[in-house]
Amino acid sequence: MATANTSRSTILITGAGSGIGKATARTLLSQGRNVVLAGRTEDTLRQAAQDHEHALVLTADVTSAGQVRELFAKATAHFGRLDALFNNAGTFGPAVSIDELHEDDWDKVCRVNLTGAINCAREAFIYMKDHGGGRVINNGSISAQAPRPRSVAYAVTKHAITGLTKSIELDGRPFNICASQIDIGNTASDIMNELGTSQGALQADGSLKVEPTFALQQAADAVAFLANSPLTVSVNQLTITAAGMPFIGRG
To answer: Under CATH, which number does the domain 10-245 receive?
Structure first.
């Protein structure tokens, strides 16, 4: 069980059981932050937390507004404060074009990537509005700027995250609430294997290409930079990619 230390700043991370969420949680714990690790699977969250004294593991499905309200209530009751949210939970969805996208698959991706992000951002905003401010960090992905081929559901929801980030930044001004978006491309993580980057990812010209990746820790360090930035500084968007990866125009 985490130690309730209200002198330490606190961040809540969704999708904290793996990938960027897990790496970011461990980075911020090493820097002395209270970290709430949230996700659907307790075992993976506990493995990510490594029994750290300032880590709090809480399970929740971000697609459920009720579960998200309970998540934030438990987190703030335990640590007594919430300074930042890393809105990280997401799913890639099927590798299809719009004519092949089944309505059930669209609904699933939209519920996680968009509704889930809004549920968490809303609860963070409510708390921060009443407690002097804070920072919401949304994981946009470079697909928020340029889609991969056959990624329509993911690309559309991630483009919507840009609108969410800008809306929070605008509406949060009177309350000392900042919003940042981090767009990450090709970390060496499980999702890259799902995309087939190690065997060859589909390119805009129809070819397959093994794309470069970069260390997950570098992405975690970038999120930590945002989380550690004072509220006198607004970092609207940060893009970090593997050097040389197809991005602008997607090749």
So the answer is: 3.40.50.720
